[in-house]
Amino acid sequence: MTGEELVRAVIDGCLRHRIMLATAESCTGGMIVAALTDIAGSSAIVDRGFVTYSNEAKMEMLGVLPETLDRHGAVSEHTALEMAVGALSRSHAGIALSVTGIAGPGGGSVEKPVGLVWFGLARRGAAPIAEHMVFPDEGRAFIRRQTVAHALEMAHRALA
After folding, report:
1. Strand stretches in 19-140, DSSP E
2. What's the DSSP call for residue 142?
3. At what angle do helices 3-17 and 140-159 cross, to 10 degrees?
4. What does the pLDDT look like over 7-40, one tens digit per residue?
5. What is the pLDDT of residue 108?
6. Among the listed residues 53, 110, 107, 114, the one whose alpha carbon sits nearest the alpha carbon of residue 83
7. Separation of alpha carbons 143 and 117, rounded Å
8. Nearest to residue 82, comparing CAs of 32, 121, 31?
9. Is residue 143's pLDDT more than 90?
10. Which domains does the chain have, with CATH numbers?
11. pLDDT in tens, 52-77
């Protein structure tokens, strides 16, 4: 499925379920919501996008707990889950996606290499889920594009 086909599939899934979508984005800086809003008619399903690049923004805008960030770091399963749940609870959406990762070129470590991205998905009436990917370090733009695609695939699976 091409990128545009995937975006259209997510929009169609939201329309079918009669729900709106929210995003909470760190490493992508709004690229997921931008991909959605590039498609005419997306206003029927896009509620809002939170760009929470800093830890302070994650806490203030999404309610990520300081203890979570201290204990697990910004790039973690726990943070991705709290971001998704926070976006859902602070919006009118029925589904929320979150991404937090290390797009590079710096910032990686042995435990958290460049290319590591955690994804969260929260849906009203269901337990939130998280998954991670370690994308090849083929540059910042590549990692960010792959992150957008994977987040949209995750939403598509949840809406199928």
Report:
1. 21-25, 46-51, 95-101, 116-123, 129-134
2. H
3. 30
4. 999 999 999 999 999 999 999 999 999 999 999 9
5. 93
6. 53
7. 9
8. 121
9. yes
10. 3-159 (3.90.950.20)
11. 999 999 999 999 999 999 999 999 99
Q: Which tokens hold the place of 82?
A: 């709290």
Tell me the C-alpha distance between 42 and 11, whole Å.
7
How far, CA to CA in Å, does 140 sit from each of 32, 56, 71, 144, 160? 15, 23, 26, 6, 30
pTM: 0.97
Question: What's the pLDDT score for residue 4?
Answer: 94
> Looking at this protein, which amino acid is placed at residue 45?
I
On whether the CB atoms of residues 28 and 49 are closer than 8 A, the answer is no
- The answer to whether the beta carbons of residues 21 and 14 sit under 8 Å apart is yes
Contact, 99 vs 155, CB < 8 A?
no
Which strands make up the sheet holding 95-101, listed edge to edge? Answer: 46-51, 21-25, 95-101, 116-123, 129-134
